[in-house]
């Protein structure tokens, strides 16, 4: 039986994101196109005697251990086991926190996988996916392992798509994070009950190239976040001025991402941006 498992927890961006009406449950429906990035946290899970989950984090602080999504993911997987055991997690953070890149969700998904591996893969995939959906909207995609997928409902309904060629990608993360719950409140205020109804009509063949995806890209959070956080708007405008193939804000923000035609174009953009608008990270789509 394996005693230690190390996995990568990959960041994501939303190539488009549409927010639907708030439901009676208090949650919003979404329609989105998820894309996995090469940028990743490292998560090591160690099987230990006893019970419960402990964690040590290297990198950005994530608040109390009990609220850490990696801890929640490991605990959820342990709860499914007939004979649970203790788990100690070591998490090395590379993905910016509170930035719309799904770092916490990726950590939770990796923890679900890791605990299952420590239990000799005793947990059925469908049960782990159900756990993922209960933890957060981005966790099912992060767990799925897909590089590109349509997501709808609360993010738990997924259609994996053929992968695209890896593309150079630049992330610009302003210093001011955005709280997801607050961003949804801003969207509610902006709509004031006048929500759009019905699903987006998509030609799946239009999702087969970066050029066609660039023409479809959009994010319903952008207008409300830009209106309240001028630093995020300035970051978006600065990145857009580098002439990328595609430029959007990811999730509820605050990270702005751009996909470029060549590595040289991305490197030139990173040099132009410097540190004026926040943290610059270079990566590629996975």
Summarize the structure.
This protein is α+β, with helices and mostly antiparallel strands and 286 residues long. It is 32% helix and 30% strand.
Explain what this protein looks like in three dimensions.
This protein has helices at residues 69-79, 103-118, 125-135, 139-144, 180-191, 210-216, 222-228, 230-240, 263-273; strands spanning 4-22, 28-48, 53-58, 86-92, 148-153, 157-160, 168-173, 218-219, 246-249, 256-259, 279-284. It has 286 residues and is α+β, with helices and mostly antiparallel strands. The protein contains 9 helices and 11 strands. The protein has 2 domains: 4-160, Ribosomal Protein S5, domain 2 (2-Layer Sandwich); 168-284, 2-Layer Sandwich (Alpha-Beta Plaits). The model has no long low-confidence stretch (mean pLDDT 91). Strand 5 (148-153) and strand 6 form a beta hairpin. The strands form 2 sheets. Strands 1, 2, 3, 4, 5, 6 and 8 form a 7-stranded mixed beta sheet that branches. A 4-stranded antiparallel beta sheet has the order 9-10-7-11. The protein is 32% helix and 30% strand.
